[in-house]
């Protein structure tokens, strides 16, 4: 759980995650804004749609008004053209239609000057239209009355034509009477004044032939007069009715034309409103679409840019830095001149500086190591020098004294005998006096070298210069015989060099040697060992020099084999 928590915490703290989170939030906000915009757009387009619908509704009302006017006119004319050409009791105009027309008209109100112009034109024509209809109705009423009288006259003429003439009347009179009635019947159907005038003269001419038949004359005379007196006003009335009808028709056409024009205008407005609505909706959709594409493309480009230019490069740089810290260097990305490149360049400078410092440190460590080695070498040399006699290059007195204690303690621990040989060059003072001090030094070196060559292969052995012309030798775990042999070998080695010394008994440089051998046990001491050797040397000098003396061998002292 702890590891998982640290892992998730690392992800949350990473720049990539936080940038992605910001982008997701931005995208969500955009979607909310887009949804709100679309909602506003829908509301706006609904408003435009409603406005367009309102225009259409008003156009339909205008069309209805125009149609109502048409219907009113049509019904009026239909009543005129009915079979008996009479007018109903209620009049020629349908009152319900009139009311409907005015109801429709009230619903129409102008919203601008152009519409007001159309309404004014409708109002201009509707008054004369209805007035003409009223006038037409009056004409129809007058015509109806005249036609009633004419019908009565026609009935009289028809019954006169069917009457059997009196038996006394001559055939001529009967024929003339028939001719007059036929003329009158034709006159009652005549529509033209000229024809009527000719028929009247014909009828009057026929009447003149009935002068000899006063009964027929008296009967036909009033019918002739009445027929022509009645027919003329009927023709006039009929023409007046037709004139009124034409006028009504004209006004009807103008009124319906005005209504139709208004309808066309409103229809055009509605069409424009619909077009505007469509264009607005289309434009809004295009704007939202283009904006969305641009916005989403920008977001996508931003995401790609952040991924490639920031997150991936930062991760790479972070990995490279971690690798350097972990001690496995990788190539540091330094291309470009932006901030990340600057960080890479700065890190490269830091790494170079660290590498340089590391190289210098290594170099310094190497130099220090070399210096230490040199120092150790010098120390060793110094140690050797401090332990060595500078003239003879064998152990000096200080070192010899120090090692004497160690040898003593070692032999005591191991219960081994420790032998000591003390050597002294014979008559060295006179050698110095004869050959000089420098020659004396050279002699000392040669003697020391000869002694060293004699003993240097032996183990547990130490040769030293005890002081002046005295040399001393330690040999652990040796017997009286062995040490004596060694002392003799040393003496003979010096003698073999045949160093001229005219003032000595043999004429050459010789040695006197005193030997002491003790088994260290706590009761004896180093000083005792030295004193015994020194005593033996003194005795050797005293016995004539160039010889080796030792104490009588002790039975206690036995050689113990070396380990
Ligand atoms: N050239 C030289 N002479 C030294 C050195 N150390 C001591 N001597 C000399 O050694 C001489 C020792 O003389 P002595 O002690 O009198 O003994 P000796 O002359 O050797 O006589 P015996 O010991 O009795 O045989 C002295 O003259 C010292 O000056 C040295 O380092 N170099």
TrEMBL record:
PROSITE patterns: GGDEF (PS50887). It comes from the Bacteria. One of its GO terms (cellular component) is plasma membrane. It is an enzyme of class 2 (transferase). It catalyses: 2 GTP = 3',3'-c-di-GMP + 2 diphosphate. The keyword Ribosomal protein does not apply. Residues 347-388 form a coiled coil. GO terms for biological process: cell adhesion involved in single-species biofilm formation; negative regulation of bacterial-type flagellum-dependent cell motility. CDD domains: GGDEF (cd01949). Its cofactor is Mg(2+). One of its GO terms (molecular function) is diguanylate cyclase activity. Residues 416-553 form the GGDEF domain. This is diguanylate cyclase. It comes from Oceanospirillum linum.
């Amino acid at each position: 759980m702890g590891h998982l928590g640290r892992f998730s915490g690392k992800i949350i703290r990473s720049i990539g995650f936080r940038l992605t989170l910001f982008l997701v939030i931005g995208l969500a906000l955009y979607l909310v804004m887009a949804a709100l915009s679309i909602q506003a757009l829908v509301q706006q387009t609904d408003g435009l749609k409603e406005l367009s619908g309102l225009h259409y509704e008003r156009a339909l009302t205008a069309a209805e008004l125009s149609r109502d006017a048409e219907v009113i006119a049509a019904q009026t004319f239909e009543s005129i053209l009915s079979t008996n050409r009479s007018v109903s009791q209620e009049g020629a105009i349908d009152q319900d239609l009139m009311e409907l027309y005015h109801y429709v008209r009230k619903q129409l109100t102008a919203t601008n000057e152009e519409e007001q112009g159309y309404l004014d034109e409708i109002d201009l024509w509707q008054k004369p239209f209805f007035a003409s209809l009223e006038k037409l109705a009056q004409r129809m009423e007058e015509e109806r009355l005249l036609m009633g009288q004419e019908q009565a006259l026609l009935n009289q003429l028809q019954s006169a034509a069917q009457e059997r003439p009196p038996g006394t009347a001559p055939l001529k009179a009967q024929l003339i009477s028939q001719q007059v009635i036929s003329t009158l019947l034709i006159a009652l159907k005549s529509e033209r004044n000229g024809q009527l005038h000719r028929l009247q003269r014909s009828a009057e001419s026929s009447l003149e032939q009935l002068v000899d038949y006063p009964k027929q004359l008296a009967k036909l005379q009033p019918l002739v007069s009445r027929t022509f007196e009645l027919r003329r006003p009927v023709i006039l009335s009929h023409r007046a009715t037709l004139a009124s009808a034409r006028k009504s028709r004209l006004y009807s056409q103008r009124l319906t034309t005005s209504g139709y024009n208004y309808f066309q205008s409103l229809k055009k407005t509605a069409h424009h409103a619909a077009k505007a609505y469509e264009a607005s909706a289309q434009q809004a959709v295009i704007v939202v679409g283009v904006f969305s594409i641009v916005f989403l493309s920008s977001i996508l480009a931003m995401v790609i840019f952040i991924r490639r230019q920031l997150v991936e490069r930062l991760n790479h740089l972070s990995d490279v830095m971690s690798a350097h810290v972990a001690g496995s260097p990788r190539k540091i990305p330094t291309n470009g001149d932006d901030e990340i490149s600057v960080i890479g360049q700065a890190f490269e400078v830091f790494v170079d500086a660290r590498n340089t410092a590391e190289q210098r440190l290594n170099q310094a460590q190497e130099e220090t190591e070399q210096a230490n080695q040199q120092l150790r070498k010098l120390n060793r040399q110094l140690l050797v020098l401090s332990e060595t006699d500078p003239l003879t290059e064998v152990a000096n007195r200080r070192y010899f004294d120090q090692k004497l204690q160690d040898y003593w303690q070692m032999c005591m621990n191991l219960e081994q005998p420790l032998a000591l040989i003390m050597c002294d060059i014979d008559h060295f003072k006179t050698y110095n006096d004869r050959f000089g001090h420098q020659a004396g030094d050279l002699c000392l070196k040669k003697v020391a070298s000869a002694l060293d060559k004699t003993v240097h292969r032996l183990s547990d052995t130490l040769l030293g210069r005890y002081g002046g012309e005295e040399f001393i030798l330690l040999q652990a775990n040796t017997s009286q015989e062995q040490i004596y042999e060694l002392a003799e070998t040393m003496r003979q080695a010096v003698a073999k060099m045949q160093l001229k010394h005219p003032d000595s008994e043999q004429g050459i440089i010789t040695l006197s040697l005193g030997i002491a051998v003790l088994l260290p046990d706590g009761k004896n001491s180093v000083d005792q060992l030295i004193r015994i050797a020194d005593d033996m040397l003194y005795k050797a000098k005293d016995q004539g020099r160039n010889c080796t003396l030792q104490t009588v061998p002790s039975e206690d002292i036995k050689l113990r084999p070396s380990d």
